[in-house]
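--- STAGE predict ---
source: upstream dedup step, 1 unique chain passed
mode: sequence only
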Amino acid sequence: MTDPAQALVATARLFGERQWCPATGGNFSARVDASHCLITRSGFDKARLQREDLLTCDLQGGIQPGPHRPSAETGLHTCLYRLDADIGAVLHTHSVAATVLSRRAGQRLTLHGFEMQKALGNRSHSESIEIRVFDNDQDIAALACELEQSWRRQEITQPGFLVRGHGLYAWGGDVEIARRHAEGFEFLLACLLQECVLTHT
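--- STAGE serialize ---
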């Protein structure tokens, strides 16, 4: 079995190199047991992440004492772990496509007709994907509460959501699956953004 810490570091560095987490943005986590997860520390370039830049916290957001602070958005990661015991990793990116498209969308962003939808578990390109979009809020506890309410209303039908003007959250049963979902979303969003550009040229 792949070490979650090793997989998380490799994925964070790859996404950082792809410019999906510029200016120390983004955050990444992996569940390590029923009560704890690893999460990236705040204010650090993800393209240079090392094992020591991962902090252990419980699923209520409590962090082990140390010199570093966890991501400011830890509460969204731990909320997802509490909502679904099958979620093993959560990846948050700040790509241009996710940021721009989330600003133009309403409460949902719809994708249709792309073969890459299969990366998210869809059976066919003919299905439509609806990605839930939340308004950004610096009050992470309030945003986590809204996420939980939306989840319980079954409004989140894909392994990811967008935060307006902020970026993408994607998850999966482990880091590898979460990475596939994040890459699938990012590809689809990049395609949609390119279509918008071509439509207006």
